[in-house]
Design goal:
1174 residues, alpha+beta, Calcium-transporting ATPase, cytoplasmic transduction domain A, nine-stranded mixed sheet, eight-stranded mixed sheet, 41 helices, elongated, transmembrane helix, ATPase_P-typ_cation-transptr_N, magnesium
Length: 1174
Amino acid sequence: MGDMTNSDFYSKNQRNEANHAGEFGCTMEELRSLMELRGTEAVVKIKETYGDTEGICRRLKTSPVEGLPGTAPDLDKRKQIFGQNFIPPKKPKTFLQLVWEALQDVTLIILEIAAIISLGLSFYHPPGEGNEGCATAQAGAEDEGEAEAGWIEGAAILLSVICVVLVTAFNDWSKEKQFRGLQSRIEQEQKFTVVRGAQVIQIPVAEIVVGDIAQVKYGDLLPADGIFIQGNDLKIDESSLTGESDQVRKSVDKDPMLLSGTHVMEGSGRMLVTAVGVNSQTGIIFTLLGAGGEEEEKKDKKGKMQDGNMDTSQSKAKQQDGAAAMEMQPLKSAEGGDGDDKKKANMHKKEKSVLQGKLTKLAVQIGKAGLVMSAITVIILVLYFTVDTFVVNKKPWLPECTPVYVQYFVKFFIIGVTVLVVAVPEGLPLAVTISLAYSVKKMMKDNNLVRHLDACETMGNATAICSDKTGTLTTNRMTVVQAYIGDVHYKEIPDPSVINSQTMELLVNAIAINSAYTTKILPPEKEGALPRQVGNKTECGLLGFVLDLKQDYEPVRSQMPEEKLYKVYTFNSVRKSMSTVIKMPDESFRMYSKGASEIVLKKCCKILSASGEARVFRPRDRDEMVKKVIEPMACDGLRTICVAYRDFPSSPEPDWENENDILNDLTCICVVGIEDPVRPEVPEAIRKCQRAGITVRMVTGDNINTARAIAIKCGIIHPGEDFLCIEGKEFNRRIRNEKGEIEQERIDKIWPKLRVLARSSPTDKHTLVKGIIDSTHTEQRQVVAVTGDGTNDGPALKKADVGFAMGIAGTDVAKEASDIILTDDNFSSIVKAVMWGRNVYDSISKFLQFQLTVNVVAVIVAFTGACITQDSPLKAVQMLWVNLIMDTFASLALATEPPTESLLLRKPYGRNKPLISRTMMKNILGHAVYQLTLIFTLLFVGEKMFMIDSGRNAPLHSPPSEHYTIIFNTFVMMQLFNEINARKIHGERNVFDGIFRNPIFCTIVLGTFAIQIVIVQFGGKPFSCSPLQLDQWMWCIFIGLGELVWGQIIATIPTSRLKFLKEAGRLTQKEEIPEEELNEDVEEIDHAERELRRGQILWFRGLNRIQTQIEVVNTFKSGASFQGALRRQSSVTSQSQDVTNLSSPSHVSLSNVLSSPTSTPPAAAGHPRREGIP
């Protein structure tokens, strides 16, 4: 479908072109082919065809300065001819496809087969039916009606299978829909600045048309293809299209081609949009992917293309070691194959999230136990029947009796399958999904836009947050509050009259011209509100200073429009300053600079005195100024900015490329202190984090004194504590050895005490995050969250376990790399994310506690019942109903508990805290004991208590007995009341606490109760129920209520006494080695490996090693970027916990060559006893 729509799109456009080619001077095809050229080729082509960029503008009927007129008919016409800036998304899976996927579940398939056999047999009436010699004799002659009803059980099983499938499919479908809603919401929020009718406006990206003049600046993600028509110092990162990581310098006369999907890393300027949507370079690639994807899907349904960023070289490598992979195929678990693909496609993260890891492990363990139990059940039933019939009663096997016997065997098989169905907690993935989806939806209200589902849960385990200062901890509303002008330090804004007029003129020009022209201060929207700041906030602060001095910057800008600026050195994290060169009327040049005071002052050799004359400014004057002016300002928490200028002669013209000579010999005009007040809610939020066991660290580009002052205001550091505040330079000096390499041991000495890292570069941030994550200094691996807004924060955001990007101040690049977008840029939203994350974890635990109690009881009842009475007291359909309550409904009820503040009172769980704690184990086993005692009592002496017929040893198609109905009903009642107990997992007494805050929970409990009444009273044969009397109902409910009382008794037993209880579902340290996402076969081996003998383990390990080496060799052969190979290798050399690594020299040498972590033999990961293996 995807390729269809796109090709239609083209043919339609071609037709349009013929009609409209006259209206615009160039067709879409011409522009498309033009955009495929690069560099000088493109310049030549533009010269030949259009004369220059102005020529293209004329043909596209647009003005390079004023932009499009912006009238509706004109815009519509452009959309019609050149297309819209919108790439049609790939079609979502249809509901039927999802149903089909849900049907792939193995247990369900087994059940379906069993049900179909059972149905077939019930319609087949063998001649030997009436034969007294067959085993049915023990039942006496059956009623005719009963024999007819034999089909009901099979049909009921099929029906319940359909229910389960529909519920699963519906959940997947709504998840997909939510995810798409989220994507479109992220896309809608993306705005871009264009010039229309000489006004600079922001419009949604989808509204951009060919011929628009767009303003591009540092940090933008280009939304369409275009030609660079004016600007300065523009550098673009085109790696998303070309794979080259070097930044490409763009200029009007050398390489003016700007491509969609690339990132602006430096500079600013204007571009003429020439191709949008499916015609832009990114669009063309997407179209190919859409078309290619369809064919791929046809070729191989299972698809090895799970990971979006799989390089071609990698897929080659994959095909080549197909042989090795084949060896491993048998170990792949049947269920592991398809269900996870969807998740994998959306995950770019380094490893499985903590929760997923623990759950997979637990599910595998439970599944195996269930399989064993069900197999034993079937074997015992079959043996008992055959022995009883043919040995004890010495019946011969008559041919006409065969169908009857087969019917018995099918019935046993169905019982076995039901045990398995109840044992396998297929509700687990459902609970996780519901819980995450619910949290994500609610987190939107708390200003967290979650881009990757699992980030939400990882956040609950966070142990460290590295936060920016500006805009996250502070309000990002800059105002100048102190200034040092003409040898005087003013503690508040000076009166304009006291400042020398020459100095004033220089100051106004320096601020107005040397700042992005997109930065403005607009009048407030409401009366009495503060003026609106648009653009770069620091520059807004400076422009505000000009206005406070009763001056105006607009006339200066209109006199010197942006096109006339001679050269601009834009701000970047290396320069930490920005400079603009203009041509003076007398042909000489003047450069204005502004930037971090200690950096700019080092380059000043003169300073303006009170009379406006420049006097010499020596290094010792500078030291004195730092002491007397800059440090006091910084200690008040102000950012200090120095404004300076320099004049150049007209001839010889300076060499503008030689930055070091140009940015020197400046004359200082003034130094200002800019205040950025701490957000009022931040100190409280940080206190909550610290109470919750999360360390907050501030990583900022600001001066160390400013940073320290703000950190104290926020409560990140408390006077008198033992902590570190250091600058980036010092940090680098301490963590590097003599050769300048970073050493993990050195980082381990610093990070535990580090609270403030000032004057840090983005690389420092990345180094710190990586250092904390890779550290083995603490017994738990640290889980680190990072906030970032700048383009250069991308690597740190990607490296962190959870990356938060700023929704308002953040650049597109940062948002792209992040997991969660903070729509209000506020630190206190992060605390909300922690709360939700912990809540997800707790919800899953609550669900598990409930689920496992039911599992244990149901399996034991079915198993012992079947062995003693040859018939499970709980029938297949009843089991499926129980499965439905406890899986689907309970996951809904328990996974949607709202979070409470009390979640923030405990420490993070960490990676090796088991999912099922001792307390939970105590609850599970305790309740299981209660339920089993009562059910067995009812099973063996129930008929005497209630004065009813015994239901034991009933023949094949006998009517449902009251006896077994009571057992089924009591069982469900106990589950219902136990669901209330399951709301608390830390052994709290009051299980009703806050129950009405969760309407879903109440609805589900009451709803289940109502349906249960209907099933028992009117379920009849399909549910194997016979209606009960009121007093029997009362007893069932009474026994159920006993659960609540028993819950209190269990809570009194101190857990510490019960040393023998094992926890389950913990991730051991060894398994934490991130598993590579691509080799799913390896992941499955991890689980299977535990069962394999030692020889086999070594054999797999060898195979795997060969596989890895083949992959590396292939990557080198195909000459693809190393990135591809490395991305797949887990970052483990730094931890080098892997003993076996040393035994393979090829690996060791590789890690030296690539100096970046290479793979551990992945089969080794996750083997608990692997140290012992030679």
